[in-house]
Structure formats: C-alpha cells, structure tokens
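Posting here for the record, re: shikimate-3-phosphate.
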Amino acid sequence: MDNIILIGFMGAGKTSFGKWYASKNNMQFVDTDVHIEKIQHRSINDIFAKDGEEAFRDMETALIAEYAEKKSSGMVISVGGGLPVRECNRKLFKELGTVIYLRASTDTLCKRLSGDRSRPLLAGGGLREKIEALMAKRKDIYEDCADLIVDTDDKSFEQVEEKIMAMKENRR
Ligand code: S3P
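Prediction output follows.
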C-alpha cells in the first residue's frame, strides 16, 4: 500500500509535520492517538490510568491492523511513539507503506515536551531522564524499521519533505 507512516519519539513533530505534508500532497492524515481517543471517547491519560499501558498497546495494534485490512492508500499515518515497539506492528508497517523516522535530539525533545500533561509515560518529573531511558530502549527499533531517517532538528517542513521526495526519486 502506498501510505506514509511517520514514526518517532513523543514530541518529534509527527503530527504537525504529518498534517502539513498530507494537506500539501492531497493525502488523508490519520493520527493513531487521536483515532483511539475518538473510538474510546476518552483521553490517553484516562486509558493508561484506568486500563493500563498494555490495554492501550492492544488498541494501537487493533487500529493499525484495521488500516492494513482495509488496504487503503494515500494516507499519512502518524503513529504513537511506542507503537513500533511491538514486532507485530512493525510487520504491519511493511504492508502499509513507507516508514519515515522523524529523529530529534534529546535537547529538542526536552524543550518541546516540558510542561506537557498529555503523555502519561512522561508524567511526574525527571523529564530528561525519562526521555533518555525510553529512547535507549527504542532507538534501534526506530532506526531498524525505518525506510528513511530524517534528522529534524533545525529543519523546516519543506526540508523534511525534500528528503522524502529524494528517497521516492531514488526508488524509481
Ligand atoms: C507514547 C506516545 C504518545 C501516546 C502515548 C504513549 C509512547 O504518542 O501514544 O502517550 O509510548 O511513546 P505521541 O508519540 O504522538 O506523543
């Protein structure tokens, strides 16, 4: 399928870049977090607090399995930062399309995520340590499943788009 899957850490800019890229390229934008909150009629914080992280991960897997099942094309799919961790989800990526890892430095992530209250895994202080610990677990996973890695620090959306276009050209 001819979709674009945006992966990366919380705060990497998947949603903001994804919306911009989708509208510029006449594609449909989907965000797994927003979609889950819509289906569940509650926030991710609430899902984590009441049902726990594993229940949320099951919801993520069910959702991308549904996208793959529907065989829709022309979507930009921004996935939650923890979604690529499950191997079965990464297998579904292969059916869905091209995986782009929006990589950002810890400094950038710290700046963007300080004061954020919407992400349960970062709640309760020690933001930098939390980011570093999670990133250490996820770094290789993100890099290994990406068809393209784009370092987004100090890059404009146009520059990120150029990298994607160049990759598409090379594949022809
Ligand atoms: C998570 C990332 C969040 C959201 C949830 C868990 C993670 O999405 O799915 O809070 O485990 O990294 P964003 O990456 O869109 O912030």
